[in-house]
Amino acid sequence: MYLLYASLVLLSLSDGLRPSCPGRCSCDALHVVQCYRLTEVPASLPSTTKRLSISHSKMKHLQLSDFTRMVALEELILLASGTETVDNDTFNTLSTLKTLELWKNKLRRVPTGLPASLEVLKLSDNSICVLHGSEFAGLKKLKVLELKNNLLSSLAPSMLSSLVSLQSLVLDGNNIESVAGPLALPHLKRMSMDNNKLHLVPGSFFISLQSLQFLSFSGNLLTKIPANLPKSLLSLKMERNQLNVVRFRDLKHLENLSHLYLSENSLSSIDGAQILANLTTLELSQNQLQMLPLRLPARLQKLDCSNNLIQRVTVQDFQDLRDLKHLFLDNNLVSLFEAGALQRCSQLSNLALEQNLLLSIPLRLPGTLARLDLKGNAIQDIAERELKDLKQLQVLNLRNNKISALDFKALEGLPRLRHLYLDGNPWNCTCSLLRAREVLKARGTDVRGGQCAAPAERQGESWMSSKKIMRQCEHHLHLAEKTREPKKKAKPEDHPSTRIPVDDDDYDYEID
Ligand SMILES: *[C@@H]1O[C@H](CO)[C@@H](O)[C@H](O)[C@H]1NC(C)=O
Ligand SMILES: *[C@@H]1O[C@H](CO)[C@@H](O)[C@H](O)[C@H]1NC(C)=O
Ligand SMILES: *[C@@H]1O[C@H](CO)[C@@H](O)[C@H](O)[C@H]1NC(C)=O
Ligand SMILES: *[C@@H]1O[C@H](CO)[C@@H](O)[C@H](O)[C@H]1NC(C)=O
């Protein structure tokens, strides 16, 4: 009797004041407990714990008694702890549990008897090979189910039929070869089955997915875009498949589709995407396109046709794309770029044309450009008329071209220029080139200049920093400074580095 009384006092003390925290754990005032390197679930965990996270431990087996005292638990995370088996109903008594995460373990099946309160279940990075409908029975509140990187080989409607509230299903990185429908998940918004082995998705699969907005089948073996996609779709990802044709007529009902990702397929032409009136992003990188897509949607903001076989850019190609902001045409075979081809794109801020066959900077580019990449072409000079309208330009990349001389008047028309890449060109290091250097430096433009190819005695010197050239050109520089000085004093606000606001998309330009 006395013993019982004493232990009750002890219990209420530890509950009421400051419950003790088990070894290798940290406990905080908000009832969050984090533990590392355990071999079993500690018996002395505070029963008020709301969030328990255990990681990098060795717990091969979990059993009911591990958690029976945890009556307030809302979130349980057991990560990278080598767990292989879980007794039936181990979590069943946790009637307040909302989130259960058991990822990076060695589970071969979904634990049975999960509590009906569960809203989030994450079982990614285990060895689960099959799902049974019974494992999810009663989970009417489950919204998120993640089973990434397991060993599932098929998906059938009966497996998930109890999950009437499911909103997000992630099955990336399994071995799924076949799916059957209809999958009756009326609230499902996101489904991802990237990196599986699907050859075919039957049209019946989608019939009862009337809320689906984000669908991803990237990294499969599909040769066609599945039929009967839900009307509700906003985004469709089909990258890294084996598509060789897209029939946009079959996608006509996708009136709200705004993002379509078709990179890394085998497409040789694209025609008629304008049927998707709300499309704003179209990605077609790494296909075999020999020309730009025909009849594009008028609301397009981003078009990525990089890494194809495109040879020409004409006025015709872009005449209706007034909302275009980002255009990627790098790594193609463009040798012909019609003057003014992008003049109608009055929002264009980002143009990537690196690694093509251009012999000169295209004429009459839109004045809205903030970033122009022409790296790795065969451009021989920079003319004033090519750059004079680019008042917003902040980044200009002309690395690895064939430019030998620089007329700094051409660059004076670029008031916002911050980064200029000129290395990898065969510079003829005359004293006038050095003067261009002084002008750029004075304006605060960050310049990569590269090395001199001529004259012979300056070969290999860096034209932006060589002391030798500076000494030899001292006389020229001195003259240049004298003529510039009064102007500088009259307009001190001209100094660009103090005036230019940093734009959102002004990320540091990568150097490779
Ligand atoms: C656990 O549940 C499964 C299926 O619900 C059942 O077949 C099995 O016998 C149960 N195991 C134990 C030890 O009760
Ligand atoms: C398309 O989007 C609009 C506006 O969000 C919405 O009212 C409409 O129901 C959507 N159409 C479909 C087919 O989901
Ligand atoms: C999609 O386009 C249609 C027709 O142009 C328009 O009525 C609808 O509002 C658009 N939906 C969205 C989400 O913009
Ligand atoms: C370098 O420029 C000078 C002066 O303009 C010229 O005489 C010379 O031929 C040029 N060298 C090369 C290799 O282009």
UniProtKB/TrEMBL annotation:
This is Nephrocan-like. The lineage of its organism: Eukaryota, Metazoa, Chordata, Craniata, Vertebrata. Residues 478-512 are annotated as: Disordered. Residues 503-512 have a biased composition (Acidic residues). The keyword ATP-binding does not apply. InterPro entries: Leu-rich_rpt, Leu-rich_rpt_typical-subtyp, LRR_dom_sf, SLRP. It comes from the Eukaryota. Keywords: Leucine-rich repeat, Repeat, Signal. Residues 1-16 form the signal peptide. The keyword Signal applies. It holds the Pfam family LRR_8. It comes from Echinops telfairi.
